[in-house]
Amino acid sequence: MSESAAAHEAFEMLNAATRQEYRGWGDTQTAARDRAASKAGVTPAQAERLWKHWRSMKSMNADVYRGLRNKYGHLCSIIENAADAVEAKRHEIEGNHASLERSQTAGGRAVSARQIHHQADR
Predict the structure, then answer these.
(1) Is residue 17 within 8 Å of 75, Cβ to Cβ?
(2) Phi, psi (5° rounding) for residue 60?
(3) How far apart are CA 11 and CA 33, in angstroms?
């Protein structure tokens, strides 16, 4: 991997961590970047150098790259766990919906949702 590609990847990982750390109105991008860098084990000065000069960097500090890569991996696992939880909830809802449809059959014929709502309104 060339240094410019490593610098680009490191910048993208720092950028993703910065977006995760951003607290909204009143926060600054620099403060969010510094928090993200600290959590990744990177000094704010190293993060600033990467942030400002990633396009022209001839070399990439391996410790900075490794710290950002580990932080990015952690962010990805958080997102994947959240996606898995949403998927599990979807399956649970679909299962409940299917069992509800089976229990709402009357004499072997299906009862439509409109009929159920009409009966409930009575």
Answers:
(1) yes
(2) -125, 130
(3) 11
What is the token pair recorded at 112?
């439509």
DSSP H helices, the chain, are 3-21, 29-39, 44-53, 62-103, 113-121
Q: What number of CA atoms fall less than 13 Å from residue 69's CA on the CB side?
A: 11
Instruction: Answer for the pair 23, 55: CB distance below 8 angstroms, yes or no.
Output: no
Q: What is the pLDDT of residues 28-76, one digit of tens each?
A: 888 998 888 888 888 888 888 888 877 777 777 777 777 787 787 777 7
Residue appearing with tokens 């190293």: 46
Residue that the structure tokens 């990982």 belong to:
13
Sequence-distant (6+) residues with CB within 8 A of 68 are 10, 13, 14, 17, 40, 42
- pTM value is 0.55
pLDDT of the residue at 113: 57
